[in-house]
Amino acid sequence: MLPIFISAINNETDRNFSEILYYEHKGKIYKAIYKILNNQQDAEDITAETFIKIIDNLQDYYGKPYEELASIFVTIAKNLAINRYNRNNKIKFTPISEADAESEESELYSDEVGDFVVQKDLYERLHAAVGMLDEQYSSIVKLKLGYNYSDKEIAKILGITDGTVRVRYHRAKKLITEILKGDSEDGQ
User: Fold this and answer.
1) Is the per-residue pLDDT at 45 higher than 60?
2) Whose CA is closest to 158, among 133, 177, 141, 176?
3) Helix or strand run (H / E) with residue 2
4) Which residue of 52, 110, 131, 149 is surrounded by the most CB atoms within 10 Å?
5) pLDDT, tens digit, for every residue of 52-82?
6) Interatomic CA distance for residues 137 and 124, integer angstroms
7) Average pLDDT value over all residues in the chain
8) Integer Cα distance of 183 and 188 in angstroms
9) Nearest to residue 95, comparing CAs of 111, 77, 117, 78?
10) Count of alpha carbons within 13 Å of 146, Cβ hemisphere only?
């Protein structure tokens, strides 16, 4: 069944091209997304979201070879899936209220609470720093640290060599360090 957003395209040429792209690429896109999310509902949602992004930039895809389109579309899908995965698996922190800090129990565990606050702050700073990176670096960091993928698995997902993964990961770590150093200098 053809999605409603493709049927709603007014230009017949664009609608026909979108239909062809949909039928040729939906299987690969869905499989790539499902491999990341392991959830049918989310995979279907992200597949639809991917095609909406494709349609938004449809003019860019006319005349490109099938293999190139497949690579572009799967990359778009994987990035959207990774974003969904991160949103679904965000670490939720419970704020520490002043009342808890004053209680006897908090006094007994004050070192642990302090460690928790430091860890939370570091996590938030790291997360913000990764968000400031270019997509080519942030996607590797997310896949490596968030999903615990190997260099070889990341290379396969992103369609690059594992050597490129290692180089980009190394550069990403340097950039994150620079960002965090800048934050600590601003905070002093």
Assistant:
1) yes
2) 141
3) none
4) 149
5) 899 888 888 999 988 899 989 999 999 899 8
6) 18
7) 79
8) 9
9) 117
10) 24
Please name each of the domains of the chain with its CATH number.
4-88 (1.10.1740.10), 98-187 (1.10.10.10)
For CA atoms 78, 83, 84, 90, give the dihedral sign.
positive
User: What pLDDT digit, counting tens, does each position of 94-110 carry?
Assistant: 444 444 444 444 444 44
Q: Which residues contact 164 (CB under 8 A, 6 or more apart)?
A: 155
> Tokens representing 163?
């050597």
Please spell the DSSP secondary structure of 45-113, one letter per residue. Answer: HHHHHHHHHHHHTGGGGTT--HHHHHHHHHHHHHHHHHHHHHHHTPPP-PPPPHHHHHSHHHHHTHHHH
Cα–Cα distance for residue pair 182/154, rounded to 1 Å: 29
58, 61, 81: which is closest to 71 by C-alpha?
61
Residue of 143 and 89 predicted with greater confidence: 143
Q: How many CB atoms lie within 10 A of CB 158?
A: 20
Question: pLDDT at position 181, please?
Answer: 82
